[in-house]
Amino acid sequence: MNSQDLEIAGKIGELVSHFSEEWEEYQDWLRDIISSRSILLERHRAWQAVGIFRWRLFYFVTYVGTVIVVNRLLKKLKSICLAKDSVNFTIQLLKLDRYRYILQRTATLLAVVELTLCGIAAVTGILLAFYYQPTALGAYQSLTTIVNEVTNGSLILSLHNLAGHSLIVLALVQIVIMFLGREFLLPWLTAWISGICLTLTAIGLGWTAIVLNWEQTSFWRFKIELNIVASIPFVGSFLRDILLGGNSISSITLQHMYALHSYILAVIAIILSIAHLAALICQEQNEKLDNKRLRVTQLFSESPPNKNSSSV
Amino acid sequence: MSDLDLSLTPNQEVILSALRFRKRYGLEIMEAIENSGGKQIGFNSLYPNLKKLEKKGFVKSEWGNEAPEKHTGARRKYYQITGTGTKALEAKQQLLENVAYWIAKPEGV
Questions:
Q1: Which residues of A28-42 are buried (b: 16+ CB within 10 A; e: fewer)?
Q2: What is the mean pLDDT of each run of 10 residues along chain A (312 residues)?
Q3: Which residue of B has its CA nearest to A55?
Q4: ipTM score here?
Q5: In a 3-state reduction of DSSP, which class is residue A20?
Q6: Which end of chain B has the least Cβ crowding within 10 Å, N or C?
Q7: Chain A environment of B27 (Cβ under 8 Å)
Q8: Which domains are present in chain B?
């Protein structure tokens, strides 16, 4: 063991001694690490002894460093709590309540908008289904007919597209809002999980809608994506067969995607958006009840003691 | 006193036992355990355990008379078991005794 290790130990001692409280408590540990090196040299080979010695120093530094950081943080927290008088503390609490209220309210409003978008997409989707033909020869033609010849067809198709895209964006924003106002209670967890599932469903709806246009871009894009799906280990080829319904992209593929888009994913999206909104409303109701209870408790704790009881 | 937490981990029990009749410093505790044929406590777990025992009031420490170490200036600390520590150790040993002598009640009684 060379003098370099002792120098390292010296530097560690110098460093830790800047923090008097921790140094007072832990310096005997460092001393014993240095004292133990002669025993290490007796029992182990030189390189092993150096390794163990350095490991002990490293552990000491990490442990004491953590203790120093934790102690400083605790002191800071205590000083903040003591410095604030009760009025300031109440204001802080009120601010926190206000912040949570705004987040919860925003989440509920977004859930209402999401449900509305789902409704718009569903209604316009049903209207489109009157004219849309899920066949290789008829898909593009029927969409052109809807846009050019059907009364308000262009508006209905645009509304359907807009609702679908907005749903994805809002569902993603909702995830962020819900993360900021996280509570880890049952209504929040229900809303959180249903929100994530809704986002995935909205993305799935968008993805299945790509091929329904039956344009060159959508056709080739879908071909590439099918290859990606097929490359998923174990289930890839199975999934590809389900989506494709044959050897190549054909009318059957179109019908599969149409069924997925209109009957399965659309229904799931509506159910999830209803569950999401219901969970968020439930969360708000719980919060209101908690606030009421808190106010009642404060009222009782602030009320003066009953004089009648003492006079009896 | 009844709700005083006298629980000890196996390592803490061994450390307290090493301090039962005399005050010792950290490395000496390790040596005592090792030379008595006991399971060796890791060097890195000895000191955190000693600090925990000190916080619980089971041991108290005092500075040794040795000169500070020349490279680091670190001083040696001696640890001594307190009355509470002795009680905790006795409680643990009593528990082991009770476990050893416990007999199941005959069925139907």
A1: bbbbbbbbbbeebee
A2: 80 89 90 88 88 91 90 84 67 75 89 95 95 91 93 94 95 92 82 94 93 89 90 90 85 91 95 94 82 68 51 36
A3: B44
A4: 0.85
A5: helix
A6: C
A7: 32, 35-36
A8: 10-101 (1.10.10.10)
